[in-house]
User: Fold this.
Amino acid sequence: MEDKQPLSGWWSGARQVVSPNCDARPDEEVSLLLIHAISLPPGEFSGGAIEALFTNQLTVGEHPFFAEIAHLRVSAHLLIRRDGECVQFVDTDHRAWHAGRSGWWDARQLSWRTALNDFSVGIELEGDDVTPYSKAQYNALTEAVVWLMARYPQLNADRITSHAHVAPLRKTDPGPAFDWAYFRQRLSSRLE
Assistant:
């Protein structure tokens, strides 16, 4: 199996836009995948605002909402746009700053864990809670997850969850518009 493991934490299926909002993982563990959703401005798709946010280049004057978030230093490993294009901001061997204050019950360790950025990969889907995600996004997400599972043996389908699940009082993404059953079926058929 080792000969099939990718050599780099940069996925060849993604365009690279390097974010400074990352650092070293305290351990080499990667065992959780968090699925997020983002649209900037809220409810609007396309444009360069998400990339600008993750690279600390958001122009405050372009939209009133940007003044509220321009100070944030956040990132994700991957962004999957509405058309299925993947953009990678952080090497998956490094810690991206995506989970925030959150907690997750790790059944393997029989304990609650915090500091989820330490051992998770964050994938943002361009979307919101109410707009259905595109087939192109599900296709790209499935391919990204297959790649991640090949790279990180501790990661499996049971260790994929939502931002809403790990931060239920703060976050709702990827929201009810995300079809978990469809995604899991696609992933299962791809892994067979």
